[in-house]
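User: As part of a screening pipeline, I want to sanity-check one entry by hand. Below is the sequence and the SMILES for 2-acetamido-2-deoxy-beta-D-glucopyranose. Please return the complex as structure tokens so I can compare it with the automated output.
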Amino acid sequence: MGFLRIGIILLIGIAIIGSVNGDENESFRKRPTIVKMVKGTKMCVKDWECGYGVATGGPLAWGLCYNKEMSPSQDYCDDYFKLTYPCTPGAQYYGRGALPIYWNYNYGAIGEALKLNLLDHPEYIEQNATMAFQAAIWRWMNPMKKGQPSAHDAFVGNWKPTKNDTLSKRLPGFGTTMNILYGDSVCGQGDVDAMNNIISHFQYYLDLMGVGREEAGPHEVLTCGDQKAFNPTAAPAAAS
Ligand SMILES: *[C@@H]1O[C@H](CO)[C@@H](O)[C@H](O)[C@H]1NC(C)=O
Ligand SMILES: *[C@@H]1O[C@H](CO)[C@@H](O)[C@H](O)[C@H]1NC(C)=O
Ligand SMILES: *[C@@H]1O[C@H](CO)[C@@H](O)[C@H](O)[C@H]1NC(C)=O
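Assistant: Here is the complex for your manual check:
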């Protein structure tokens, strides 16, 4: 039942995103949608997908079945934001939604933008599909920080890399959307599973939607293994 429900949520999401996205032609318009679904795989794909190696059709065929992180390792409360986005006692800010959001500051910022009290009620995102997709679309369309591209702009090619971006190996395309949304938990670590699993889901959906994986572009566009994160999680250590 859970599986069916999430499948329906995803389909509705596709319709919504397809209709709000006015970029380019149809095959291009489909792409952000596909990425959005794929992004559900996040850093630890196992938390979101219910397929497994010996399942019929292979693991990818089962897609993303969960609307929340299945085994969160923490409550994702960052005290640095205690003045702007204070954690509500007892609330947990683990990954939830169609394009998962994590951490009090993300729930806080998205709640502010959408006028939803997500700091007190992060669980709305796993209980209400409308909110889940509002949050996902907002996250997709808005940059993490001023001066950085949104995942959407990086994906459809609206974004023009600066010299810094080029030096950091960030170029328009799928790899950079992973950089924006997941940073160094996925990117800049070479050819790691966390990244490759997301790419595999992306390619699977490209095929499924008739776009074709060969349209996804060359390896350097598809991956972010060599990219420097836009927003590194820790201050870089002094060069050693
Ligand atoms: C869609 O747009 C892209 C980029 O603008 C172009 O390369 C491609 O040929 C277009 N496809 C169709 C079917 O018009
Ligand atoms: C889900 O969220 C939407 C948007 O905030 C709201 O209009 C709707 O009433 C909510 N549905 C339920 C069942 O709470
Ligand atoms: C380019 O990167 C350097 C080093 O990270 C930084 O100090 C500088 O502000 C960046 N320039 C721009 C225009 O982002």
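Points to compare against the pipeline: Residues 184 and 233 are 7 Å apart (CA to CA). The pocket of 2-acetamido-2-deoxy-beta-D-glucopyranose (ligand 3) is lined by residues 162, 164 (CB under 6 Å).
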